[in-house]
Design goal:
It contains 25 helices and 22 strands. It has about 700 residues and is an alpha/beta fold. It has a seven-stranded mixed β-sheet. The chain has a seven-stranded parallel β-sheet with strand order 12-13-11-14-15-10-16, with helices on both faces. The protein has a six-stranded parallel β-sheet with strand order 17-22-21-18-20-19, with helices on both faces. The two termini are about 35 Å apart.
């Protein structure tokens, strides 16, 4: 087959023409023959049986009937009109009904000519009727390419209104197979196809659109899903290889005084074996001469900060500066306070730069950065400003990296003549399938154990009707000297409403826990940063026992004495957010509790989220459930949801296929990193086409 045939604009396919082509482009993104070929059905109908009108049952299944239209009429109704046809066979009569597209249908229908109709029936006025049936002249039906399993393609209202029905799309795909002779280049090497018993590409495509039976459909889908995921993994792995070859990094060859002194004399606790393993992986990267790009995943409280600090000490030992960038001022301040305390006796210069830093202080920081006196700068987005110039930035650490866009992260790269080493950290566990697909070009480290002595947080779900018992429990915990968070949801679209919820909640808490016996802090997004910090500070110092807040406290607040987290309207939170909030407690040696408060009306998804929270504290298990509930697009947020423009595979459902695809892509690159072998010529060609199209290349930095 001519490989350029698939690049042909869709306008030129017989049966389409310019008008239909324009609708296909706008509605479903079909621009070329190749796009149409990869526009797969989302379900299949079994059309092995024909019914007689007398055999129809009062159920909602799809049925297929052969008969004739003997009469057409327009019926007035409250709003507009409907077109009704009397349809008969040798056993009885039924009605066909159209509520839209009536002019076109009336002009094109043939009376007293045998048709095959297909659709759902309903029982109305003592007759069966079928609204908007699929119709085909019996004569055409017999001629057409036909399988027992009929494909049903995704559609839109506009497609339906303009007559581009499921049958039209199916016919166009048949035409495409005719024009191409059913021959397509197979982008997978013969050896790989044989090893995995994969159908040839042409056969797989044909059976995805026109399956002969269930078994062939399953084989066709596996083959096409594997290929799609294989090339995504190949692109990510190649990008990693190219980065390591082309992008030189500063070699950190020394493990010097700062690192050794801290490890031997100032480390406040024994590192877990997971922390040791991750530090070793980072040390290998930093000493390799290639630029490090590593994603560090660790659940809330797993000790990522100490790993980040020890990486910073390696940079300092090698004569470089480092920076840590956090998404919020609160978290940046916390990193600054925690790290300053840990390195207090090492003689390291650490400064904090945020939006609130005074101008005089900024000038000092800028000068100290440029002359090399400042070793470590911790801050927010303020670090990205043009004015912030380092003398010799060697390591950039980004915390909660999903809060920063690709362009923002790229600005850190330009802070030195060679890009600094980059360590991105997240406490939002990313399901393995998603990590492989979105961060497959990064090296991933996981801290998968909590420090010893941490007790698992007890999580319970309580309805609003149990509120008095919950208040009693809060009182008991405060008597023991503990502190309590009470968190209210925050939904951007209705800030005024959320603020009202929060203030109502605050007033009822204040009534229940009156001064002077109890002191309450309140923190929300509409407060000035200085007021917010003042309230936070009172809670951190133990001057207040209860913190009433919106989700501004989600990331990073560390109060070891706080042992109770109450989440109001918990059904309004996503799973990962609930997990993050729960991680604000359980930081001390005492038993901690998380109480999820809801009303009685809960959707199935809400029930699943709450049950998952009560059942497990494993962030990775929670992330997998979250992925199943919300899908990859939602989970990654708008910045990254467009990356995986998958045609047939689903990274949640096809998890095993994804792992297999990554394994084989890795094996192929181990044997042939430049794709130079003759047997991989087709892989090299396909890969170069994909890179040209930049379908995922551009997005992942």
């Amino acid at each position: 087959m001519n490989p350029n045939l698939l690049q042909t604009p869709i306008d030129y396919l017989k049966g389409i023409g310019p008008q239909r082509a324009d609708i296909l482009r706008k509605e479903i993104g079909v621009h070329t023959y190749g796009d149409l070929l990869n526009f797969f059905p989302n379900r299949y109908l079994d059309k092995t049986r024909f019914y007689k009108i007398s055999q129809l049952e009062k159920n909602s299944s799809d049925v297929q009937v052969i008969g004739k239209i003997v009469h057409l009429r327009t019926v007035e109704q409250k709003k507009g009109k409907r077109l009704v046809a009397d349809f008969i066979d040798d056993t009885g009569k039924m009605e066909l009904v159209w509520f839209r597209g009536q002019k076109w249908i009336r002009e094109n229908l043939k009376l007293n000519t045998p048709y095959v109709i297909f659709g759902k029936t309903s029982w109305f006025n003592g007759l069966f009727s079928m609204p908007h049936p699929e119709m085909e002249l019996l004569e055409d039906y017999k001629k057409n390419l036909r399988t027992a399993m009929q494909p049903v393609y995704p559609s839109t209202e506009k497609l339906g209104k303009t007559g581009i029905t499921n049958r039209v799309i199916s016919r166009c795909i048949q035409q495409l197979f005719v024009e191409s002779g059913g021959k397509f280049i197979d982008p997978l090497p013969e050896e790989l196809r044989q090893e995995l018993h994969l159908l040839p590409k042409a056969e797989a495509l044909f059976n995805a659109h026109f399956p002969k039976d269930q078994e062939l459909l399953a084989k066709a889908e596996f083959r096409l899903k594997f290929e799609e995921l294989f090339y995504i993994q190949l692109q990510l792995l190649m990008k990693n290889l190219i980065r390591k070859k082309k992008i030189k990094g500063f070699p950190f060859e020394e493990v010097g005084t700062y690192f050794s002194d801290f490890y031997e004399n100032h480390l406040p606790f024994e590192l877990t074996s997971a922390q040791k393993r991750v530090i070793k992986e980072i040390r290998q990267d930093l000493g390799s001469g290639a630029q490090m790009n590593r994603l560090l995943q660790g659940d809330v409280g797993s000790g990522k900060t100490i790993v980040a600090l020890m990486s910073v000490l390696l940079a300092l030992d090698n004569g470089f500066q480092a920076c840590i960038m956090a998404p919020t001022e609160i978290l940046a301040i916390q990193h600054f306070n925690g790290i300053s305390e840990l390195v207090g006796e090492l003689g390291i210069s650490v400064r904090l730069l945020t939006g609130s830093t005074r101008t005089s202080e900024r000038k000092e920081i800028h000068a100290a950065l440029e002359n090399g006196e400042l070793n470590l700068l911790i801050g927010t987005h303020a670090l990205l400003e043009e004015k912030v110039k380092f003398q010799n930035l060697g390591l950039a650490i980004i915390d909660e990296q999903h809060r920063f866009g690709v362009a923002q992260r790229a600005r850190l790269w330009k802070k030195n003549h060679l890009p600094p080493h980059v360590l991105v950290m997240t406490a939002t566990p990313i399901p393995r399938t998603l990590a492989m697909s979105l961060y497959g070009d990064l090296d991933v480290s996981v801290i998968d154990e909590l420090p010893p002595g941490r007790k698992e947080i007890r999580t319970v779900h309580r309805y609003d009707s149990n509120r008095l018992k919950v208040f009693r429990f809060i009182r008991d915990e405060i008597k023991k000297g503990r502190q309590v968070y009470i968190v209210y949801p925050l939904i951007q679209e209705s800030e005024a409403l959320d603020y009202k919820d929060l203030m109502d909640g605050y007033e009822s808490i204040a009534r229940e826990f009156p001064t002077p016996e109890f002191q309450i802090s309140i923190v929300h997004g509409q407060m000035k940063p200085a007021d917010k910090d003042y309230e936070m500070d009172r809670f951190v110092k133990g001057e207040t026992q209860i913190m009433v807040a919106t989700t501004v406290i989600e990331v990073g607040v560390n109060v070891p004495n706080a042992s109770v987290m109450i989440i109001e309207s918990a059904e309004r939170f996503g799973l990962s957010q609930l997990h993050q909030l729960r991680g604000r407690v359980g930081r001390g040696a005492e038993q901690s509790y998380c109480i999820l408060m809801t009303g009685h009306k809960l959707s199935n998804d809400s029930k699943t989220r709450l049950e998952t929270m009560v059942r497990t504290a494993d962030g990775f298990e929670i992330a997998e459930v979250d992925l199943k509930l919300r899908g990859p697009g939602d989970l990654m947020g708008t910045q990254q949801s467009g990356i995986l423009n998958l045609k047939i595979a689903d990274i949640v459902k096809d998890n095993d296929t994804l792992k297999t695809a990554r394994y084989y892509a890795l094996q192929l690159l181990k044997e042939d990193p430049n794709l130079g072998l003759e047997k991989n010529r087709v892989v090299k060609f396909t890969y170069s086409q994909l890179v040209k199209e930049k379908n995922i290349w551009n997005y992942i930095s």
